Amino acid sequence: MSGGKETLQEQRRLKLRRLRERGIDPYPRSCHRSHTAQEAASLFEEAERSGSLPLPDVSLTGRIVARRGMGKLTFLDLRDSSGKVQLYLSTRNLSPEAQLLLQDLDIGDHVGAQGKMLRTRTGEVSLEAKDIVLLSKALHPLPEKWHGLTDTEARYRQRYLDLIANQEVKSAFQVRSRVIAAIRCFLDSRGFLEVETPVLQSKAGGAMARPFITHHNALDRDLYLRIATELHLKRLIIGGLDKVYEIGRIFRNEGIDSRHNPEFTTLESYQAYADYRDVMAMVEEMVAAVAGDVLGVAKISYNGQEIDLTPPWPRLALREAILQRTGIDFQEYRDADALRAKVASLDIQVDKAMGRGKLIDRLLSEKVEPNLIQPIFLLDYPTELSPLAKAKPQDPSLVERFEAFIGGMEIANAFTELNDPVEQRERFAQQARLRQAGDEEADLPDEDFLQAMEYGMPPCGGLGVGIDRLAMLLTDSPSIRDVILFPQMRD
Q: Could you give phi then psi for residue 195, rounded to 5 degrees?
């Protein structure tokens, strides 16, 4: 098979030499296109209905994805970003130079063609080409079954082939783009201001995660790739920007699986004078609105199950959710060692470095989260898991935090933000003790942020949404790699 592939490449390189010898530039700088394939087809069909044929000539461009010959007729399927159109080429319409060029064209080449739109005897809307030009000579053949590249590793590593071969992949990324646009529209309409905060940071704070470290030569110091945008966005709340949001890339030095990639995209928003219940209402409205804008419906299918995104979504205390699924009331286990033994009795893997908060989080991820298919909010998390959230007045061991789950995965996380600088300093000190005990993901203190808080931070509701996971839901994609154009891959 390898030898055959090399022969095909050699044949293409031979054609490339022939083209150059005839004075043809196989990679010209530009080409005029009057319409996309879809525009040209729609224009013709409208002219058919209105009786206004024939139309003026059109110029189309695209990649050849199929070729068929019938005597003096050649049919090429031409695909551009809008869709596919058939080129109808007859020797009686083409110049000798164009006919010669046609012999040296291969599937995968980009071409431009000019002529009139018509409907063939088989009923297919086509362009009857009067002229054809080469725009880019492909030196590699497309995958054997170009319409069905199925090797998953190849699809992710060579996304360009995936996009060429699988039109549904292109559609998924178009949906992702529209999701982000719809989120922006939703927040902008509510008076939020989109901002940008640093990717390179002196402290990697705002989340419990291991950061990537890099070195700045001119400053001769190590910097971190951000693990969250939270602490800088809160600085803006302190500065008087009452509603802010950022959609941006986040970097976490963690494992790779179907729901995690070391770099991913989040939405974070912060609203002064709001709490987590205000944010909760906004989240359910936003997700339903985005689905409506992008898909036209609030009911979606994910992993073979119908999911209704229509608000309101149920609210359930985290304590109750874990109790229902495991029989463990974590509030009865204030000691980490006792809780660790209880969690281990459920055949859940634990280690001695896991504190009480991490153990509760493990119960959630192992026993509860996979069962949360319909949209639901889980409320009120242990303080150990949420060092930046405000404690509940009735029980300071819990904080006003929610996570939103759909399709068996977390898609949003939100707090009533802690705005007491004294308590925040103590929370960071607690995290430092956890880090000393072996928790590499414990939150790092940020002295500059603490100083900013001391100037006065208003009550605030904060939100984080995983854009990639939301895109997974709305495109019915089983893996995060299906909605990230260039995911990280193992060697």
A: -135, 170
